[in-house]
Amino acid sequence: MVDNVKDAQVGRREAETPVVATSGPLGWWARAKDFLVKVREEVGRVSWPTQREVQATTIVVIIFSLIMGIYLFAVDAAFNKLVEWIFRRLGGAA
Q: What backbone torsions phi and psi does residue 47 show, to the nearest 5 degrees?
């Protein structure tokens, strides 16, 4: 039953969509216009975040970036010390 409803909705959308002539010297113009009309319709359906949501997620990204930067700095420093220790142990110049 649900499939029939979805099929009916898709069929209705297809029926509402105008048929665009794609042949001839101006076929690209009609396709471009049709594309832009569909883009505008789709942008109207987008659920845009509020300013508060944008600020909150921006803060989360900044904090996460700082934490990862500190973590990677610590891992890099530890590997650097390990490599220096290995070179000194094997008699290399470090």
A: -95, 100
Fill in the DSSP letter of residue 24. Answer: S
Least Cα distance to 82 among 70, 94, 64 occurs for: 94
pLDDT tens by residue, 60-90: 999 999 999 999 999 999 999 999 999 999 9
Please, are residues 18 and 30 in contact by the beta-carbon 8 Å criterion? no
d(CA 83, CA 45): 55
Sequence-ordered list of residues with C-beta below 8 angstroms from that of 94, at least 6 positions apart, any chain: 83, 84, 87, 88
Find the largest Cα–Cα distance for the chain. Answer: 79
Q: Is the pTM of this model over 0.70?
A: no
